[in-house]
Amino acid sequence: MACSGATDHDRWYGLGVPAQGLTPAVRDEIARLGHADIMVGIPSFKNAATIGYVVRAAQAGLVQYFPDLRPVLVNSDAGSPDGTGRVVIETEPPDYIEQILLTRPTNKLSRVSLTYPEIDGVGGKGAALRTIFEIAAALEVQALVVVDSDLRSIIPEWIELLAGPILKGGYDYVAPLYARYKYDGTITNTVTYPLTRALYGNRIRQPIGGDFGVSGDLVKHYLELDDWTDDISRFGIDIWMTTSALTGGFAVCQARLGAKVHDPKDPGSDLGPMFRQVVGTILRLAATHPDNWIDIRGSHDIPAYGFERIIDPPPLEVNTVRLLTEFHTGSLTLADTWRGMFAPENLETVLVLAEEAGHLVDAARLRLGLGGESTSVTPTTLEMAEALSAFHFPDDLWARLIYDLVICARSDDPPIENLVAALVPIYFGRVGSFVIENRHQTTEEAEDRVERQARQFELLKPYLVGRWQQAERESAQQAASQPPAVAPEGAASR
Question: What is the DSSP letter of 483?
Fold first, then answer.
């Protein structure tokens, strides 16, 4: 662990916060820091090439917008072998802070870089954030800002946009509001945004954005919750945070951050594990909190903080041939599993779509010259989408499939992680359809398509509520039909 800060060992022991996951070295460092007003947390793994830029932007934002507050920056790392932690500690603040702004902070910024402990043997982003939460609670910060370590678009203003609503407006959770390329954020666009909106009635456009602000009160609430599953210890953490803020009754808003530029990810090759962890978490939370969504109809906007910017995010290439191939292949191996997941009419439609996808992929491969040994050029996203233009995955079908899985999550039998893993090929088909249908659309026009799908989730919520209530009645009838338990002979009455 690398660190810098002042010394006061005794303060740590009177804070009374849950810190069971923190090592003695981390506790000693917190004791030396004593207290902070605002904190920036950066989870990381092998981000030496980008984290220096993120640290400089955070440093500048803290000095520029909150010069009178006592700041600390904490890097919670997964043991990166590339020197990520060293970069955090050695990165100097931008020269312009004093030379141009003529701003001198009242308090010197302390920086800490540490390797976070796993949660029950599981490491990942959630485990990194758990450590950040525990440190924030121990330091009794008023506001915590968390940003991704691979950001290429962060500017100092992000710190003010994410912390300002907490420190100035009394909000507890500040979700990011990005301008993203039309093919970016596929898990958000297809599942977390429409489902969170339909369930809880709040239009949080980026509920798993990765960059957010949290009040000290909400940090303590997170630490009090006893549902840190394996998925939450990994990529499920972001949707868990958003949902827990909503179900806990905390004040929520959004911050307009402009474009999000980070390491690109093709949904067909990079996002399978993330999808399983995120969707598994949101389904479990829906099954855990039915009282928070069963009576909600429609949705409403939530406040947005900051200036709306006109930005054209950088493009992202997507291999739609691979996506539809995975969809078709999945139907050949997972049909029996799907039969236990979906209503019969929904399953039948999915199987027909998957067969159609297989035929279209075969034709597209011939048209694009794919599959031969001499193939050396990969077609563009547009070329693949044109070759597959006849494929369409309906919005209403996708909404019903997701709602079917919410019902499955009631019992967790079979385990929801198995069902979500079986959903991945269908998710690929849904994403492929979105790319194909929006191949000629601008990012702004594609956003209208995302909104249309979200409205479809809202319109079909009675389908979910009806199936949920029916399942509840059947469970109650089954329980009532069971013979009462017989006490062992000779057992003492109480």
Answer: P
333-344 b/e with 16+ CB inside 10 Å = b?
Answer: ebeebbeebbee
Question: Cα 439 to the chain's mean position, in Å?
Answer: 26
Average pLDDT for 151-180: 94
Q: What crossing angle do the helices spanning 193-200 and 443-459 adopt, rounded to 10°?
A: 40
Q: In what order do the strands lie in the sheet with 252-259?
A: 2-3, 110-115, 71-77, 38-44, 143-146, 212-215, 173-179, 252-259, 304-305
Cα–Cα distances (Å) from 314 to 181, 184, 302, 310, 482, in that order, read 6, 10, 27, 13, 60
Domains and CATH numbers, the chain: 2-305 (3.90.550.10), 320-476 (no CATH)
Is the distance from CB of 141 to CB of 38 less than 8 angstroms? yes
The band of 42, judged by pLDDT with boundaries at 50, 70 and 90, is very high
What is d(CA 173, CA 170) in angstroms, rounded to the nearest whole number?
10
Buried/exposed 267-278: b ≥16 CB within 10 Å, e otherwise: bbeebbebbbbb
Rounded-to-10 torsion of CA 396, 398, 403, 408: 140
3-state secondary structure of 15: coil
User: 252: which strand partners?
Assistant: 173
- Measured between alpha carbons, how far is 192 from 228 in angstroms, rounded to an integer? 19
pLDDT digits (tens, 9 = 90+) for 219-245: 999 999 978 778 888 889 999 999 999
- How far apart (Å, rounded) are the C-alpha atoms in residues 306 and 308? 7
pLDDT tens string 270-322: 557 889 999 999 999 999 999 999 999 999 999 999 988 777 788 889 999 99
DSSP state of 291: G
Evaluate if pTM is beyond 0.90.
no
Pick from 46, 66, 55, 160: nearest CA to 107 = 66
Give the number of C-alpha atoms closer than 13 A to the C-alpha of residue 7, restricted to the C-beta side. 0
Extract the runs of DSSP E, i.e. beta strands, from 117-240: 143-146, 173-179, 212-215
Q: List the Cα angle 213/129/229 in 5-degree steps.
A: 120
